[in-house]
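In this section we turn from sequence analysis to structure. A common task in structural bioinformatics is to predict how a protein folds when a small molecule is present, because the ligand can shape the pocket around it. The inputs are simple: the amino acid sequence and a SMILES string for the ligand, here adenosine-5'-triphosphate. Study the lines below before reading on.
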Amino acid sequence: MPPDLSVLTALPPQRREPLEVVSAWDLTIPYQQFRAQHLVPPTLVTLLPERPATRRVYVVVNQKGGAGKTTTAMELAAVWVSMGYTVRVIDSDHQASLSGWLQPLYPEDVAPKDRRELTDVFYGRCSLDEATYYTRYQNLYVVPSTEELALVDLDPRVGKDTALRRAIAASQAPIDIDIIDAPPALGKLSINGLTAADHALVPLKVGELDVRGLGKLHATIRAVQEETNPGLVVRAAFLTAWKRSEYAREVAERVRADYPEAAVFTIRESVKASAAPKNFEPVRLYEPAGTTAADYDQAGRLLLQPKEITA
Ligand SMILES: Nc1ncnc2c1ncn2[C@@H]1O[C@H](COP(=O)(O)OP(=O)(O)OP(=O)(O)O)[C@@H](O)[C@H]1O
Ligand SMILES: [Mg+2]
């Protein structure tokens, strides 16, 4: 069954003027542009790709700043929307990079002070669905954040480990995939993301890799698996802004040893990729023929099969 948008009653009303919505078809990259550059271990190829039967929650996590978390969240969202899924990205970083990139479409009759964001969800002022907004992309929704989200990290009264998990579980919106963009810290927000997620995705920038940092992330993920979320799986690592080198190969091996259950994807560097957020477009639309878009496209398709639509 295609998603029934009438169920989105908890969402803010659509703007009254007709929207210039980008159709999912426009997010599709022609198949010929694929270039196999990913280091998917042969043992994993037999397991991939899968098609989730129920709603799936991913968290994109790494405490290192500038690792490619927001880019990975955005590009996978765009790939999976183009494959027929309804995707919601949850901006769990008070820098609000993802919100700035995706530009939520706030209803015009709601005053700016009444707009909802993730902080309101943590403080129990609204549900996750009430903080979910349309974007100009069909079937792509966003829960924005603002700098206020930094309060959640400081306030001991809110943001217990399971708060985001409970908020997602209570969501009624017909979302197939939630993607949480975690902040560059292993604080309360990243722990909430890891606790809420079925699958963790770890982007790393090879050139700036801090191996000790990788060990710390590993320990945090193991602690969450033991304490609050035994079902958490590290599904994939993304070596972002990739350039082929002996060191990069060693990093890929190290990641593979740390996360034997994960696929390791290389995302090649593209100069234009870093300009896409300023243009409020996924790299996929901003530079569709570029290496970054092609590599995320292939990674997204290796992780999931297109959604089965039975009309
Ligand atoms: N494949 C790529 N090629 C070129 N530039 C890239 C690529 N991936 C990411 N970048 C750029 O690297 C910078 C950091 O990426 P991004 O914002 O996604 O990282 P982040 O982990 O979310 O950062 P933060 O920790 O601050 O939230 C951005 O300017 C982004 O455009
Ligand atoms: Mg980010």
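The longest helix spans residues 211-227. As an exercise, try to locate the residues that line the adenosine-5'-triphosphate site and compare them with your own expectations.
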